[in-house]
Design goal:
Order of helices and strands: EHHEEEHEHEE
Largest sheet: 7 strands, mixed
Helix content: 25-40%
Strand order of the largest sheet: 1-2-3-4-5-7-6
Structural class: alpha+beta
Strand content: 25-35%
Radius of gyration: 15 Å
Bound molecules: coenzyme A
Number of helices: 4
Distance between the termini: 25 Å
Number of strands: 7
Shape: globular
């Protein structure tokens, strides 16, 4: 199965609900978000391109045009440096087929051509084996683990993975 990225659109709240409103899907993300939070996030994703602070995409099956997940990048201040952060999510029925790796490699190409920041970071939970595998496979360097409070009130340990977008491929 091959996938492409499409800009996050007005009709994509149901996809967001399946990704971030679901208990199974958010085991490593501090649990499901409320309906209110998801609606806020939907607006934020729609407005990202005009804000110039990042991009969010839906991952779409090339053949059927069915939406199977999300991936994106956005600005973050990390250790007093302006960087991009990335994150991904693939619906359970489509997991284990290399879709997250393929979609993330496409988002890396877009972040590279956007070119505002040199570094792209990912912060998967230390327990999130597939996400840590994705970072390793796509050439990120593991810088170490940190405690994060996300969402507020929930502490989790996450790895800091960094990719140099300006390094020679
Ligand atoms: C993380 C997630 C996006 C992975 O999606 P996916 O499309 O199934 O991932 P891929 O098929 O591209 O596989 C990624 C790698 O993880 C590996 N992997 C999958 N499950 C694994 C496991 N339980 N243990 C170790 N490695 C695992 C795969 O083998 C693959 O590595 P490989 O290509 O070297 O074999 C998906 O599980 C998900 O959406 N989880 C819930 C949301 C989430 O946690 N998002 C991440 C926030 S950082």
């Amino acid at each position: 199965m091959t996938v492409r990225l499409e800009p996050w659109g007005e009709g994509d709240l149901p996809l967001l609900e399946k990704l971030l409103g679901d208990p199974e899907m958010t085991v490593h993300l501090g649990g499901p978000e409320s309906a209110e939070k998801l609606a806020e996030r939907q607006v934020k994703y729609e407005r990202l391109p005009e804000s110039g602070t990042g991009r969010m995409f839906k991952i779409v099956d090339d053949e059927t045009s069915e939406a199977v997940g999300s991936v994106g990048y956005w600005d973050k201040t990390w250790r007093e440096q302006e960087v991009y952060e990335t994150g991904w999510s693939v619906l359970p029925a489509f997991q284990g087929r290399g879709i997250a790796v393929e979609a993330t490699s496409q988002v890396i190409a877009r972040a590279k051509s956007d070119g505002q920041h040199r570094y792209l970071h990912a912060f998967p939970s230390v327990d999130n084996a597939p996400s840590n595998a994705i970072c390793r496979k796509l050439g990120f360097t593991l810088l170490g683990a940190h405690d994060f409070e996300y969402p507020p009130g929930n502490t989790m340990q996450c790895n800091d993975w960094r990719l140099d977008l300006r390094a020679d491929a």
